[in-house]
Amino acid sequence: MHLPTDLSSYVRVLKLASTPSWEEFSQIAKIAGAGILLVGLLGFLIFALMSFVPGGP
């Protein structure tokens, strides 16, 4: 690991990075929230299905 080279590449990436606009942020938040809800719903459905199957928890 060559420290000065690594630091310069990190600084270059940080210079290229920019903060998202409010519209972009809200769209990303909606998509992430929908994904979290979908995974939670899928987990709940699997749990409910396994509760009705004989030998479930």
UniProtKB/TrEMBL annotation:
The reply to whether Transmembrane figures as a keyword in the UniProt entry is: yes
Any one of the GO BP annotations: protein secretion
Entry keyword set: Cell membrane, Membrane, Protein transport, Translocation, Transmembrane, Transmembrane helix, Transport
**Membrane topology classification:** Single-pass membrane protein
Task: Give the residue spans that cross the bilayer.
Answer: 31-53
Record GO terms (molecular function): protein transmembrane transporter activity
Record's GO cellular component terms: endomembrane system; plasma membrane
Instruction: Indicate where this protein resides in the cell.
Output: Cell membrane; Endomembrane system
Q: Which InterPro entries match?
A: Prot_translocase_SecE_dom_sf, Translocase_Sec61-g, Translocase_SecE/Sec61-g
Q: Which HAMAP family match?
A: SecE
On assembly, the entry states: Component of the Sec protein translocase complex. Heterotrimer consisting of SecY (alpha), SecG (beta) and SecE (gamma) subunits. The heterotrimers can form oligomers, although 1 heterotrimer is thought to be able to translocate proteins. Interacts with the ribosome. May interact with SecDF, and other proteins may be involved.
Function comment: Essential subunit of the Sec protein translocation channel SecYEG. Clamps together the 2 halves of SecY. May contact the channel plug during translocation.
Assigned protein family: Belongs to the SecE/SEC61-gamma family.
Task: Please state what the protein is called.
Answer: Protein translocase subunit SecE
Q: Which organism is it from?
A: Halapricum salinum
Give the encoding gene's name: secE
